[in-house]
Amino acid sequence: MKVFCIQFVLLVFSQSLLRAPDLTSAATLQPPPLIQTLSDGGDIGPQFNLEQSSETPQVIVVEDAKFWHNVGMRQLKKTIDNAKKAKEYSYANKAKNIIVFVGDGMGIATISAGRIYKGQYLKHGNGEEETLIFDDFPNTGMAKTYNVDKQVPDSAGTATAMFTGVKTDYGAIGVDSTRSELNAEQGRVESIMDWAQRAGKRTGIVTTTRITHATPASTYAHIYDRDWECDTEVPAQSVGIHVDIARQLVENAPGNKFNVILGGGRKPMGALNPQEVQTVKFEGPTETICARNDQRNLPKEWLQKHANDSVPAALVHSREELLKVDVKQVDHLMGLFRNNHITYSIARQAGEPSLQDMTEAAIGVLERGQTSSGYVLLVEGGRIDQGHHMNYARAALHEVYEFDLAIQAALNNTNPEETLILVTADHSHAVTFNGYPLRGNDILGSANLHKAKDPMVYETITYANGPGYFEHLANETRPANSSNVWKPLNLFTQEERTSPTYRNLAAFALKDETHGGEDVAVFAHGPGSNLVRGVFEQNYLAYVVSYAGCIGPAKDFDGSCSRGYAASPGDKITGSVSLLVAAIVSLLVAAPAT
Ligand SMILES: [Zn+2]
């Protein structure tokens, strides 16, 4: 049930109405209902019930697509009104191309730790003073990530919010919170890729996870449950109603029209490579994959569907093949590089491309010069999240480093005057960056020193929960003067602690570390980037893409789209001095970051 008490709804409304102080002051606001019960759920987390007070009058409010559309449009209006008040008009600059970078699970602690990891990995000095590429982006904001039914969200609900403008339930993909297991049409929402294709733009998705995983799937699929990646995962009552995610990618728009599809997931696509080699064994629920039972080879079907392309479509399975693709000619490129996810970059396997390789290839296929209508591209650094889930802090931070390289590649290969680049996370994680380590201390090291009286040290990167608990639990090796709980860190060998499968300590035992519920940062660069400011609901990002890109529901918000791409040479002269000045300013701001 997506039923919320009236107080909570008032709270949401009052937060989105900036200039309505009388509303907030008049409200008899109370905190949202408490979580009453916790019980085991599926592999994406426990289900819970909300306590409903019998004394409070209840109004049933369904937070459906219409509800979230209104929230998104109000936020857009608020942001633009504030910009006008400050006489800043560059918000109206239009983006021909839009690239959305999602660091899955890249919360603020991960960004700060990842920045230091980058500096130390590159031996740039102490590390703390390092900058990530997106640190230099001119605009930032904070997104509230909760799902319609959960305080702490998952990637399906959050990606649906970002890519469709509609917040939805935990686990739901491309459908709003009115979704139904028995009706695949119920609550369907369009994505930024639908909007882009309707406007004649090219589209593409790039990820280090399976191409059918929650984040990329939310750009093209509509399905009750994110786990239904292949036919054998769709439960009996939904068979014949819901089509699995992999099939939706090649059968339905917008997926079947994508110019670029790069990632892992050969197995759910029915194209298993039985010879695949994996030299490092990583663990966790996401390491298991569903296998098709319908004998379909979807990449092969995709190739056949594109058989009439003037330039033959390219299907590749290795980095070597990817780099050989003539990206300036090929209009449709599919690269599936792994049966499951692409391996963590810290343990990259032979033949696997980096996120940077894939991003460069994608932009090559999408960028078609001044005569084209531009493009929309999703690039997901998908394994930051999965590293954290297993408490593999080193593997997770190395993914941040590689994610940063991919963003650098995008800046190097795009025109900053016409390309809006958003960098964000879908949600955070239960990871902390803590203690009082000295300046320049190894970010993956200990936060304090071993002392004779107390040999207990703890790590700067520590998890609130997860499987790291078990490895650090004290056993018979425990010295008398240590804590009764944890094995001293110096009893781990250097080899153990630098292994990609080393788990940092977790304080509460769980097989799978959880997400975090705090806001995530959004970094923005290029035309429309100053629409990203303040704190907003996560679904607002789809409205930023819509307004700045002149696609989808906000393209007619004001007359700015008919004025054309303000900052692009050769495009219509707007006649507005302020727009011209803003374009020059954004150009100057952009320069140091590239
Ligand atoms: Zn996750």
UniProtKB/TrEMBL annotation:
Residues that, per the record, bind Mg(2+): D104, H213, T215, E380
Active-site annotation: S155
Record Gene3D superfamilies: Alkaline Phosphatase, subunit A
GO molecular function, one term: alkaline phosphatase activity
Coiled coil: none
Enzyme Commission numbers on file: 3.1.3.1
Subcellular location: Cell membrane
Swiss-Prot/TrEMBL catalytic activity: a phosphate monoester + H2O = an alcohol + phosphate
Cellular component terms per the entry's GO annotation: plasma membrane; side of membrane
Details of cofactor binding: Binds 1 Mg(2+) ion. Binds 2 Zn(2+) ions.
InterPro entries given in the database record: Alkaline_phosphatase, Alkaline_phosphatase_AS, Alkaline_phosphatase_core_sf
Annotated family: Belongs to the alkaline phosphatase family.
Protein name: Alkaline phosphatase
Encoding gene per record: Dwil\GK22608
